TrEMBL record:
Keywords linked to the UniProt accession: Cell membrane, Membrane, Transmembrane, Transmembrane helix
UniProt-listed PANTHER family: FERRIC ENTEROBACTIN TRANSPORT PROTEIN FEPE, TYROSINE-PROTEIN KINASE
Domain (Polysaccharide chain length determinant N-terminal) ranges: 4-92
Name this polypeptide is given: YveK family protein
Topology versus the membrane: Multi-pass membrane protein
Family note: Belongs to the CpsC/CapA family.
Subcellular location: Cell membrane
Region forming the signal peptide: none
Residues passing through the membrane, by range: 18-40, 174-198
Stored Pfam families: Wzz
Amino acid sequence: MEQTVSLHDLFSVLRKRFIFIISTALFVVAITGVISYLFLTPIYKASTQILINQKQTEQFQVSSQDIQTNIQLINTYIVIIKSPAILTKVIEILDLDTTPDLLEKKIKVETTQDSQVIKISVKDPEHYKSVDIANTIVEVLQEEIQMLMNVNNVYILSPAVYLENPLPATPNPVLNMSIAAVCGLMIGVGLAFLINYLDMTIKTEQDIEELLGFPVIGIVSPISEGDGNNIKGLLGRFWRRGQQDV
């Protein structure tokens, strides 16, 4: 027999398993919170911005061609910033216990479209170290670029600064727990429907029809406590009359 599920049946399952669904969501949120606060290492982020420009000349006006030339140099500077030539000196200056390859993974260099501004971001478990690395990269770049490209066109717009109470960039416990709440609700709903689907106990006359394939022709109404006492009294009178007849 083909089984169909109505919208009313779906809401009935959700209403019946409401506590289970909420409990599942709260459990997932609790586990995510514990992991975010106690087990994940906080990672701090420090950023600095630099401006790439042409070598200064006696001309006071800058043409659009000059700006386009500067923009074309951006990709070259991005490669130079993350190159071993820069990162090796940064490691030596700060006496870091790492390698250029590992340090490169902590650094993100980005720029906006048609912009001569480069943003250098560094992530590290220690806030002060991320600030030191970001600022030292710029300082080394200013020195090395003069020898590598024979220009002096790196200008610091905003250095990385130390914060008294820095907030970690990752993890974000509130965001993680919000996502966990949504996922927990989805898991709870899925499990509720799965449990309802695997539940083979007979609860209604419709269940009997689906199981046996025969229509229900009669239903025994529930007997209340008062009705039960009346039936017991009636049966008792019949029994005593029968005893007297015997």
